[in-house]
Amino acid sequence: xxxxxxxxxTSSFNFFQKFKNFDYVLLICILILGFIxxxxxxxxxxxxxxxxxxxxxxxxxxFTLMMLIISFINIKYWFSIGYLSYLGVVGLLIWTYLFGITxxxxxxxxxxxxxxxxxxxxxxxxxxxxLAKFFHRMKIENxxxxxxxxTSLIIILLPMGLVIVQPDLGTALLIAISGIAVLWFxxxxxxxxxxxxxxxxxxxxxxxxxxxxxxxxxxxxxxNPDKDPLGAGYQIIQSKIAVGSGGLFGKGxxxxxxxxxxxxxxxxxxxxxxxxxxxxxxxxxxxLLIVYxxxxxxxxxxxxxxxxxxxxxxxxxxxxxxxVFITINMxxxxxxxxxxxSPLPIMSYGGSSMLATMIGFGIVMSAxxxxxxxxx
Amino acid sequence: MINSSSDNVKKLNSINRRMFITGSFKFFIMLGIVSxxxxxxxxxxxxxxxxxxxxxxxxxxxxxxxxxxxxxxxNVIAGNFEAYQLHIIPEQVEDFRxxxxxxxxxxxxxxxxxxxxxxxxxxxxxxxxxxxSDNLSWENFSKINNHLYDLNGVKPxxxxxxxxxxxxxxxxxxxxxxxxxxxxxxxxxxxxKNFVPxxxxxxxxxxxxxEEKLIGTNDIERYEVNAYGRRISQLEFxxxxxxxxxxxxxxxxxQKLVNELLKDKAGSICxxxxxxxxxxxxxxxxxxxxxxxxxxxxxxxxxxxxxxxxKPLVNKTLQGNxxxxxxxxxxxxxxxxxxxxxxxxxxxxxxxxxxxxxxYGQTYHCWKKEGHxxxxxxxxxxxxxxxxxxxxxxxxxxDKMSETAKKFGLGKEVFGDLFNIEKKGLxxxxxxxxxxxxxxxxxxETIITGIGQGYIQTTPIQLCLMTAQIGNGGYKxxxxxxxxxxxxxxxxxxxxxxxxxxxNIKIVQDAMYASTNEVRGTSYRSxxxxxxxxxxxxxxxxxxxxxxxxxxxxxxKTFEIPYEERDHALYVAYGPYKNPRYAVSVIVEHGGNGSTxxxxxxxxxxxxxxxxxxxxxxxxxxxxxxx
Lengths: 376, 627
Known about the structure:
The structure holds two protein chains of two kinds.
Chain A: H1 2-11, H2 15-21, H3 24-44, H4 51-72, H5 75-80, H6 82-99, E1 101-103, E2 106-111, E3 116-117, H7 119-136, H8 146-164, H9 169-186, H10 190-210, H11 213-223, H12 234-246, H13 257-260, H14 272-305, H15 309-333, H16 351-369
Antiparallel strand pairs in A: 1-2, 2-3
Helix pairs in contact in A: 3-4, 3-14, 4-16, 6-7, 6-8, 7-8, 7-9, 7-15, 7-16, 8-9, 9-15, 12-14, 14-15, 14-16, 15-16
Chain B: H1 2-43, H2 45-56, E1 57-62, E2 69-70, E3 76-88, H3 96-107, H4 111-123, E4 130-136, H5 138-146, E5 154-163, H6 171-174, E6 177-179, H7 182-187, H8 189-194, E7 200-202, H9 205-209, H10 211-214, E8 219-225, E9 231-238, E10 246-247, H11 252-261, E11 267-273, E12 279-285, H12 291-294, H13 299-306, H14 316-319, H15 329-338, E13 348-350, E14 357-359, E15 362-364, E16 373-375, H16 377-382, H17 386-396, H18 398-407, H19 430-437, H20 443-449, H21 460-471, H22 502-517, E17 536-542, H23 549-554, E18 568-575, E19 582-588, H24 594-626
Parallel strand pairs in B: 2-10
Antiparallel strand pairs in B: 1-8, 2-3, 3-4, 3-5, 6-7, 8-9, 11-12, 11-19, 13-16, 14-15, 17-18, 18-19
Helix pairs in contact in B: 11-24, 15-17, 15-18, 15-22, 17-20
C-alpha cells in the first residue's frame, strides 16, 4: 500500500524533479565519449573540419538532444510501445529488403532524404525492448515453457533472417546476441544456453561450408593474416601495426602516421578505435575503456535501482549488449576475432548506430528518472 | 497479491543472480582486452613501431658518382660529364598529350622512339619520373629550355654520366660501363648494395676489375609516403661518396702513339717499366669507341664491331694466344746456358735448305735458304738461326726449357686475378702433354718448341714481361697498372733473381744487342745509334700454318700471300741498352715479318718513351717534394 501512495505522488512529479533524478555521471560520460569521438573524427579528416567531423557533430548534437527528450518520457510509455516499435523496425527491414539502397554489395539502407537509415542497427535495441516487454509480465514458471521459448526464438530469428539476406551476417549475429542477452536475464534455463553453444560448436564446420567465399576468407584471414598481407590480411595487419606502434602514450593527436598516410582502411567507422589507440596509446585506450566501463556500470546500476522488472531487464540486457558491441569491435581491430562489420558505439561514424545507441541510453535514462515507476 | 509478489521476488532473485554472473564475465573479458592492448602497445611496441616506419618511410637511392681514371700525369682518361636529360612527371602535366607531342616535334623523335616513351609512361605510376631522353645534345637541350614556358611539367635535368675523352685509345685497358644487368647485380656485392635503376657499371677491363673501388655510394633520400606510394615529405638527405679515382701508370702520349702505330692493323703493343713493372702503354688493335656503350649501343654500331674480321672485341694483349716464334730464343738460349748445355763457344753449322736438319725422317729447315754457316750463340741469336736453336733445344730438352720459361712469367696470368679474361698461354712439357693429350712427348716437338712453334703459346703481355725481366738483369717484377696506394703491400718475392748465374743474363742481353745493333742482325735496320735511345731486341715471325715444300719453293713475298695465311710479326725489346728502363713487345697479326713490320714500330716507340722518361721521373720527384 505504501508503494501505492508513492505511486500517486510520483504520478504528479514535476519537471524539476525529473532533472534532479537524472543520472549525471552517465550523462557526463556520454558527453565525454561524444567529445572524444569528435576529436577522433577531426583527426580522421586530417586535422581539418571536413565532412565527417561536421556530420558527426550534427548527429551527436541531434541525437543527444533526442536522448534527453526520451529520458523525460515516462518509462511506462516505452514499455507500451515495445511490440509496436519492434514490428515497425521489422517493417523497415522488409522495406529495406524490397527497396533498400545497395552499397558495396549489400542492401542495408533506406533513403530517408536527410539520412540513410540502416534499420538493422535499430533492431539491435528494439529487439531488447520487445523481449523485455515479453518477459515483463511472465510468471517465473512459464519462462521455460515451450511456448515462451518458441515465441522468443521467432522474435529473434525473424529480424536475423531479414538481415542475413541483405547480406550482413555480422549485424545479424549482434541482433541475436542482444536478444539472447534478454533471454539470459529473463531466466531461461542454463541448459538451453549450454545446448546452444554445444550445438553451435558442433555445427561450426557445416556453417563454414555454407559461408560465402568472402566470409570464409575473413575467417581464414583471421587465423593467418600474414598469408595474404596485401589482400585479405591487409586490414588486420595494418590495424595491429597502428595500435602496436602507438606505444604507451601514443604518437600524439593528429600524428598517427598509419591513418594520416592512409594505411588504415575504414578508419571512420569500424577501425576508429585503431586510430584513437595509435594517437593516444595504451594510456588513452585505457581511459576510453574506463569511460565505457563507467557507462556500462551506470546502466547496470540504474537497472538494479529500478523498481519495475521491465526497466531492470532492459537495462541489464542493454548494458550487456553494449558491452558485447564494444568488445567485439575492439577484439576485431586487435586481431582477436575475425573481421565482422560492427561499429564501436558512439565513436564510429554512422548515424543509424548512433541513433540506436542513443535511444538505448535515453530509455535507460528514462528508467533512472522514473525509477520508482511501477509498470502493471 | 502475495502470490504475485513472491513470484516477483523469485524473478528478481533470478535476474540478480544472472546479472552477477554476467558482471564477472564482463570483468574478465575487459581484462582480456586490456591485456591484449598492453601486449600490442607496450610489450610488442618496438616491433610494430618498426613496421609502421617501414610502412611510411621509403628510401630513394640516387646513382652514385663513379670514380675516374687518370693517367700517370693526371690526365682524365675516363671521367664524368654532365649529360642533359629530359624528365617528365606525368602527374604534374596538365595536358600530357599536348606536351608529349610538343616534345616530339622539338626533339624530332622518330615514331619508334615515341612509341617506346608512351609505353614507358604506361608502366610507371603518374607521380614517378618518366625519362624521355637520357642524353640530349646541347642543341636540343637548349631548344627545350627555350620552350619551357609552353611545356608545363617538363624538367630538363643535368645528370652525371661516364665519358671517355680519348675514345678508342684506351678501350681494351679501361673497358667501358653500361647499364647493370642481373648478372652484374648478382655477382658483385658493391653493385647489389648501390643498385638503382639505370646504374652504369663496368662491363670489361679495369672498369670491371675495380668496380668496388670506383662505384662510390648512393645519395639517399628518405621520404614519408602514403599507402599508395606517393611522396608526402622529405625526411632526410644523405650525401653519398664519389667513387675512388684511380691513377694509372699509363702515359697517354705513348698510348696515343701505340694506337697510331697499330692503326688499321690487328695486333698488340705493350710498354713496361722493367724495374717497377708499371705498364706505360698497353693496346690491342683494332679498338672501338667505348662511349658508344654508355647509353646502350645501337644495333648498327654493334653489328659493325661484332662482325669486323680483325675482332675488335678481343683484347689481344691479354687474350691473344700467339706462338712466340723467334722471340722465345733468348729464353731457350738462357735455359741452355743456365743448365750448362752450351757455352758461348758451342757452334752449329747451318747449311741451308739443301741440307736441313733431319730427325727420324722429318726435316727441320732454317728460315734462311742459303744457311748461316757456323754459328755460335751470339751469332745465332743475332741472325735468328733456327738450325742452331734446333740443336740446342734437342740437347736441352723441353722440360728444362719450360722451367726457365715459366720462371720468366710465361704460361701464367701476368696480372693474376685482375682481369678475368686474361689467358694463361701455354708452355708445354712432357708431363703436360701426357695429362692433356694422353700422348708421350716427341723429340721433334722439342725441336720446334726451340724456335717458338708447336704447342707453345704466349700472350703479348707475357712476352713483354719476359723481355723486361731479361732487361733488368734477371729479376722478378710484378706488372701493375695502378699507381700504388699508401698501404698496398708489394709481393715479397719482388726482385728475387731468376737466374743461377748473372753472367748468363749478360750473354743473352749482349746477343739481343747484337741482333738490333750489329750488321746482319735481324732488326739492324730499326736500330737507333744514339746511345740515349739505343735498344736491344729480338724479332719473331710466327707461322700460322705449316710451310709446305711448295711454299718453300715459291718463296712468296708477304703481300702475295692471303691475309689469313700471313705470318704474325713479333718484336720484343728493351732499352736504352746502356741503362735500361723500358721493355716493349709488339705483335702484328699477319704482319708478315718481325724485322720489317714489328721492329720499326719499336724504333718509333723507344724514341718517345725515352723522351717522356724524364717527365715521368719529374712526376715522381714532385711526389717526394709534396711529402
